[in-house]
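Hi team, as promised in this morning's meeting, here are the two structures we talked about. I've kept the exact order from the run log so nobody has to guess. The first one is mostly here for context; it's the second one we should focus on when we meet again. Sequence first, then the predicted structure tokens.
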Amino acid sequence: MSFRAADPKRPSLFYLEMHLSDRCNLNCRSCSHYSPLFQKNAPHPSLRAFKKDLSRLASLFSDVGKIRLMGGEPLLNPKAHKFLPVARKSFPNTDLRLVTNGLLVPTMNRATVESIRNNEVTVDVSNYPPTSEKKDEIKAFFEANGITYNFKTNRVVTTFFKPFALRLDNADFSYECPSAGFCVNLRNGKLAKCPMLMHVNTLNAHFGMHFPTEGLIDIYENEITGDEILVRLGKKVALCEQCVNVRAPWEAYGKSVPQISDWVVDADSAQ
């Protein structure tokens, strides 16, 4: 594989996340990407838009340190294998990752296996309790198919976070965001400093809430530069004022129905 030298005239972007699917087969309570709120038949992201956006991003940044393709559960997208070479071609030097809960790994199709190997993709496995129960089968599949993976089997996810508070004056929920613009998400020509901002419109629509959505950056904006984007990603947006990230026990929904209190610590004040 050939590697492209970084262009000193364009900055580098530290990190990027993109969805290959909004749907999930696990549906964790308080998911920061709001996957349980998407319809089971929600369309997968467009490959054409994915390619267009990465091409545009490559004109603004010389490189991206790490790109994580995720969801939702990316292996629910039957065309997931077609997205990997697009990402690799757009940023040949990037540390390219596919992020999965692992449950579908043992039934991964050959096209996806070959695309992962051919495009030097590392598979990151999020070790949730149901994943841990299948860890031996998952690891055996990776090793049998020559797939590079990152799977910390001794560390099981036991906590998630409720991201928001409604009351801005509640000192009990004050919080300083650790991402500082390093959980950057790209979707349909827009960059967001974190997944909560990128997809908060889904939370608003589902529960009739009014969390602020301002702060998305249009990468097709006239005369915008990579340097300007980095400055804007480093600034707080209105949603930051309501971000608290209070720990909550991890659990999947199963047959239960998502509630606004799964994402909002003081949801009772909305009544």
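And here is the second protein, the one for discussion:
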Amino acid sequence: MKPAALRLRAPVYGASGYAQAARHFALALAEKAPYPLCIEPLQWRSGFDVQEEAATRQKLQALESQQPRRSDELLLHWSIASEFTGRQGCAQAVGHCIFESNSLIQDFVGGCNRMDGVIVPTAFHQQAFAAAGVSVPMGIVPEGVDCERFTPDGPRLKQVPERFTFLFVAQLGYRKGFDLALRAFLELFAGQEDVQLLMRCYLKDGSPADLEQVAQLIQLFRAQELGGEQRGHVYLLENVPDLHLPALYRSAHVLLAPFRGEGWGLPIIEALASTTPVIATHWGGPTAYLQPGLAQLLPYTLQPIPPDIPELFLGGHLLQARAEGHLLAEPDVQQLKYAMWAAYENYALYKLQAVQARQHLAAHFRWEQAAEAFIRWVEQL
């Protein structure tokens, strides 16, 4: 069906990875869609400040609609799938759904099945969600990266000391593998003055109080898991707005992403577009673009979520996933350490991979291509 208009209901002004993706997709859709687009912004509060460029915010605001929904519109609901409520007065309703385990929690399955169809970023999700019980049509619409914004050329963060730099960018949660990155770094480099780990992490909202709690948890991890090891240059960055992410990636030699579960991995694809080499788990959504030879890929085993992981490090959705018996990937920590040491010793080889990865992403994973894929699928729905 070719809709008369599109209505996007999404957190386009938010700071989470989910919101960042919605924002980029909205702008690409506005450029590529052959019919009018309007936006209904959702209010989310998580992650660091966006501080988006004024021109970008103005483009989004120009798309905002105060008009009531029309019966000939298609509604694209880009949010948590449990919030999907169907057409809401529109001709059709499509949801955008993503998850990070080997399945989909049943609250999300129910939400998806209230829609006329669902878009997912990869074949991995399509297969997992179908097995979990999603019965409506599912279209694969890969997410993307802005290769004009994320480039190897440009400024770096001035406050980053001149050392060989590993970077970790994620919420301080179990599935992101912050404990694996921190353990591997300190076990390898605690006694070396020329290497550092930068961490851009948050628990909830990136506020000063939130970052203080992150710092306390890192110290607790050092004490309980690493015998009180206090050596090693580990820097918790203060609130680095999304506006400065390109400079952050350029300030690092290697991005660490030893995740246990990942839906798409914006920091991974953005780092590679910046030609910053990546070490990442070879599982889940990122396998759509993380091909062998473009990054250092970690082997893993699928395991249940341990019962002793506190809710603070899981969040409500993974807590439910644990209760439903979902599996996550446990990357090989020894292989992570091998890859980190090899990057430190033979950096040129890793950099060449990242340069080739950027070429691959620029050819196949732009946001404009994501918008075009969505339009093709919608018109066949």
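Starting points for discussion:
The domain at 164-364 is CATH 3.40.50.2000 (Rossmann fold).
The CA atoms of residues 8 and 68 lie 13 Å apart.
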